[in-house]
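Supplementary Text 2. Reproducibility record for the structural model of the 632-residue chain.

All settings were left at their defaults, and a single model was retained for analysis rather than an ensemble. We include the record here because the model underlies the residue-level annotations in Supplementary Table 4.
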Amino acid sequence: MWEKIRRHIQAHRPKQRRYPQSWMEKVVFWLGLAAAVCYPFGCYAVLEYIHFANRSRWWNFLTGHTQTALFLALALAIGYVIVWLVTKRAWAAMLCFFALTVGFSLADYLKYAILGEYLYPWDFLQTGNISELTDFISVSFPWAYILLYVLLFLAILPAWWARISLPAAWFVRLPVALIALLCCFTQVSTAEKAQNLLNENGLYLEDMALQSSNYLSNGFVGAFFVNTVSRSVEKPEGYSQEAIETALAPYAAQEAAEDFCAPDIILVLSESFWDPTTLPGVTFSEDPLANYREIASREGAFSGKFYTTGFGGGTVRPEFEVLTGLSTDYLPGGSIPYQYVQQPLESFASLYRSLGYQTVALHPYSSAFYFRDNAYGYLGFEHLYFEDTLSELPISVTTRGNQVSDDTFVDYLLYYLEQADDPLFLFGISMESHQPYQDKFAETEITVESDVLSEDVLYTLQQYTQCMQDADRALKKLTDAIDQRERDTILIYFGDHLPTLGANYGAYVQTGIIDDVLNVGTEEKMFLQSTPFLIYANFDLGESTMLQEGTENEISSYLLMTAAGQLIGAPQSVYQNFLTAFGEALPVYNVRLAMELTEEEKSWVDIQRMITYDRLVGAHWSDAESILQSVS
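Retained model, structure tokens:
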């Protein structure tokens, strides 16, 4: 049957492009021509409709930002014309734009549904990020959107049938396409030109500071365009060598305390470590974090809330902030901070390495993920161990939830602790609790019940809770080993971000933590951006100006290691001395929390922003001239 249909189509389709003769051919020709001309505008409308996921928001954007929407649609049309010039045939250009529309809109929808973040240009720099979207099986894609894809595809057929094409030869079309491409490039070839072009059409680089507002204010195409043409970190107002020197003038490098014993330091980023029992309306047959609570309540332990810049994903942001004390707030949202690390960068690893420590980073996953293999050396790590080298150790490896188990991860940590002759700074990132949570475990030990959660979200939560129970047991195994060590040892342990529990913040919406995912208030953000942290040692810790013994502490990610350094009496660089003062004045802040700041508090944030810019892409005026070379 299909062969008969194919032969019938071929028999009645024009053999070559010609002026239509019959009324039927004329109808098809003009339909095909109209579809070819209007196609990029239809693609733009579909991209924005799926992005806003709501007809009224989509229409309000188009009518409320008419100039911006028209500019973006015309920009797409220019790109479409360039492709048409290259392909000659309209159907080929339309098919290309159809594939791009489906690919970009689907990726944006799934990424937001799973991670609560939109699709960014730099996602394509790190293809490993695609693995974070593997949870798409649990995300329903509306039939209305599939219908839009079908209509877009059907619009190609009249142009194909009528053989709509450009009459010019290739030696005319290709130079015209190249000239058009060069003209487009010259409009954004410099930061000043790009900014002028954006501003003239209602788009602003400042929107990049918080990508949620960027994508809601400018739509998907506009926000993606803003992110693409900016290409760099925005220079802070007033940035200069004099401004840097003036800001850091009150601070000086500080020598180690007299009782600094150069303890072994274990810094652990526990993937998605969080307390699920904080969800209202949910009950658990037993406490998944019983060990954590017991350890945190011990005399001499410090714990509380760790405020992070990640949610559901983006581990690299809080990781970078903890290791360097810098902020990712003013990097392009969703970008990978390690992509800017192209030379030695002061970090806590480099500080302790200068004091005679061995510095080790280990992670049972790919070394290329988030560019860690390139950046860690610049941060001062002497030894790097990833999944390929860790698998060669004389350790029995177990997998849980399709990842290296947290129990094995602790064995890795203990192995390198025992191998070290010198004091050790050991940084490790676990993997067992990484999403997706669907079908991670055949059986779970804790029963989770709720009258407010949907069946699929409840199932996801139960799977995630098993991850937390495993992490909790591994934490006890690690602290028990620390207690038995003869060498003084301190553990700094934190979760990088909350888990994704269902599409579109499913668990958090259904339990009433969030009322409107598009209008999340500061109180709600304080919940969504905080995870537990723990500082524990097998010797008596000192005092910190940012932390108090007990479980009620709150601290920002970039302040954690400075506070831990105070507790052991470690030396401080000039910048770490600044962080101490910053933490005393403003212990909790990041741009995602949408906090109201006083003018004095803004001055602290501005200095940190300036130093972050200076060290990553600026002139490096704030780099330490020297770090203490010996223990006092």
